[in-house]
UniProtKB/TrEMBL annotation:
<dbReference type="GO" id="GO:0000105">
    <property type="term" value="P:L-histidine biosynthetic process"/>
</dbReference>
<feature type="binding site">
    <location>
        <begin position="167"/>
        <end position="169"/>
    </location>
    <ligand>
        <name>NADP(+)</name>
    </ligand>
</feature>
<keyword id="KW-0560">Oxidoreductase</keyword>
<comment type="similarity">
    <text>Belongs to the tetrahydrofolate dehydrogenase/cyclohydrolase family.</text>
</comment>
<keyword id="KW-0368">Histidine biosynthesis</keyword>
<keyword id="KW-0658">Purine biosynthesis</keyword>
<dbReference type="InterPro" id="IPR036291">
    <property type="entry name" value="NAD(P)-bd_dom_sf"/>
</dbReference>
<dbReference type="InterPro" id="IPR020631">
    <property type="entry name" value="THF_DH/CycHdrlase_NAD-bd_dom"/>
</dbReference>
<comment type="function">
    <text>Catalyzes the oxidation of 5,10-methylenetetrahydrofolate to 5,10-methenyltetrahydrofolate and then the hydrolysis of 5,10-methenyltetrahydrofolate to 10-formyltetrahydrofolate.</text>
</comment>
<comment type="pathway">
    <text>One-carbon metabolism; tetrahydrofolate interconversion.</text>
</comment>
<dbReference type="GO" id="GO:0006164">
    <property type="term" value="P:purine nucleotide biosynthetic process"/>
</dbReference>
<dbReference type="Pfam" id="PF00763">
    <property type="entry name" value="THF_DHG_CYH"/>
</dbReference>
<dbReference type="Pfam" id="PF02882">
    <property type="entry name" value="THF_DHG_CYH_C"/>
</dbReference>
<keyword id="KW-0486">Methionine biosynthesis</keyword>
<dbReference type="InterPro" id="IPR000672">
    <property type="entry name" value="THF_DH/CycHdrlase"/>
</dbReference>
<feature type="binding site">
    <location>
        <position position="233"/>
    </location>
    <ligand>
        <name>NADP(+)</name>
    </ligand>
</feature>
<feature type="domain" description="Tetrahydrofolate dehydrogenase/cyclohydrolase NAD(P)-binding">
    <location>
        <begin position="140"/>
        <end position="289"/>
    </location>
</feature>
C-alpha cells in the first residue's frame, strides 16, 4: 500500500485563485488594492529566495508588494522605525519581517512593534491570544496551511480526529495544536521530554511533524492509514547528486512513511507552498478587517 500524496502545490494554487478573486472584487466594489510589505534584513540566500517568491505571488494575485531590503548591520532602532512607518502607511495592509533576524536585533521587540491588525504572520501576542480564545484574527501561515491540508486529506471535517503534534515551537507546534483543538480534534503534544515518542506518534490518525529534525519520523511511527503532515524543510547533503549538492527533506522519512500512511505531504511541494498562499489570504483578511469590511470566503 502506498499513501495518497497530498498536493500542497495544487491546494496552494487553488487558494491563490480564491485570493485573486477576492482581490478583484475588493478593487471593483471598494476601490481597494491590498498591499503586503515584506522586510528582509541581511543577505541569507534562502531568505532572499522566499522573499522574492512572496513578492511575485503577491503581485500575481493583484495586490501591491512593497519590498524592503536592509543591510545586515541595520540597527534595531532603524528597523523599528521602518515598522512604525509601515504601521502608519495606509497602503500597507500586511507586514512580514522575515525571520531569523540578525543576532543584534531583539526579535520579540520587532514583533511587538508590528500593528496587530497588520500582523499577517500571526506572531503578535495579541493574535496568538486570539487563537487561544478561539476568536477570529490573523492566524499564523504555516499552521493554517497544515490545517487546510489535513482537511483536504480527511474529507473536510476534523471533528473527533486523534491528532498528534510532534514539536512545540512557538512558530508551528503550539499554534497547530490550538488550531486543531479549535477544529474539534483530540490533540496530544509530543516533544523531546515525552515518554515513548514513537508509540505516541503511532496512536495518531493525524500526525503533524514539526520538529526540524531531518527524517526523524520513521515508517513504524506511523499508524497504518494515518494522515501525515510534514512541516519540516531541511536541507541535507546529497552526494548522489554530485559534490557539494543538497536536497530538501522533511521531518518524516518519506520513503518509509509513504508505505504505511493513508495520505502524506511531500517535501518540497507540501506545507511550504501553503505557507505563502496563507500569507496572501491573510493580507486580504487584514485589509478587510482594518476597514470593517466583511472578510470574503477564500
Ligand atoms: N516572518 C517569517 N514568516 C515566515 O513565514 C517565514 C519566515 N519569517 N522565515 C523563513 C520561514 C520559511 N518559510 C517558508 C515558506 C515557504 C517555503 C516553500 O515554499 N518551500 C518550497 C520549496 C522551496 C525550495 O525549494 O527551497 C516547498 O516546500 O515546496 C519554505 C519556507 C517561511 N518562513
Amino acid at each position: 500500500m502506498t499513501a495518497t500524496l497530498i498536493d500542497g502545490k495544487a491546494r496552494a494554487a487553488r487558494l491563490r485563485e480564491a485570493v485573486s478573486g477576492a482581490v478583484a472584487a475588493l478593487k471593483a466594489d471598494e476601490a481597494l488594492t491590498p498591499g503586503l510589505a515584506v522586510v528582509l534584513v541581511g543577505e541569507d540566500p534562502a531568505s532572499k529566495v522566499y522573499v522574492a517568491n512572496k513578492a511575485r505571488q503577491t503581485e500575481e494575485c493583484g495586490m501591491r508588494s512593497f519590498e524592503h531590503r536592509l543591510p545586515e548591520e541595520t540597527s534595531e532602532t532603524d528597523l523599528l522605525a521602518l515598522v512604525e512607518r509601515l504601521n502608519a502607511d495606509p497602503q500597507v495592509d500586511g507586514i512580514l519581517v522575515q525571520m531569523p533576524l540578525p543576532g543584534h536585533i531583539d526579535t520579540d521587540k520587532v514583533v511587538l512593534a508590528i500593528d496587530p491588525a497588520k500582523d499577517v504572520d500571526g506572531l503578535h501576542p495579541q493574535n496568538a491570544g486570539r487563537i487561544v480564545l478561539g476568536k477570529p484574527g490573523l492566524v499564523p501561515c504555516t499552521p493554517q496551511g497544515c490545517v487546510l491540508l489535513a482537511k483536504e486529506a480527511m474529507g473536510g471535517d476534523l471533528s473527533g480526529v486523534n491528532a498528534v503534534v510532534l514539536g512545540r515551537s512557538i512558530l508551528v507546534g503550539k499554534p497547530v495544536a490550538l488550531l486543531l483543538q479549535n477544529e474539534n480534534c483530540t490533540v496530544t503534544m509530543v516533544h523531546s521530554r515525552s515518554r515513548d515518542i514513537a508509540a505516541l506518534c503511532r496512536s495518531a490518525d493525524l500526525l503533524v511533524a514539526a520538529v526540524g529534525r531531518p527524517q526523524m519520523v520513521r515508517g513504524d511511527w506511523v499508524k497504518p492509514g494515518a494522515t501525515v503532515i510534514d512541516v519540516g524543510i531541511n536541507r541535507v547533503p546529497a552526494p548522489e547528486k554530485g559534490e557539494g549538492k543538497t536536497r530538501l527533506v522533511g521531518d518524516v522519512a518519506f520513503d518509509e512513511a509513504v508505505e504505511v500512511a493513508g495520505a502524506i505531504t511531500p517535501v518540497p511541494g507540501g506545507v511550504g507552498p501553503m505557507t505563502i498562499a496563507c500569507l496572501l489570504a491573510n493580507t486580504v483578511v487584514a485589509a478587510c478587517q482594518r476597514r470593517g469590511l466583511a472578510v470574503p470566503a477564500m
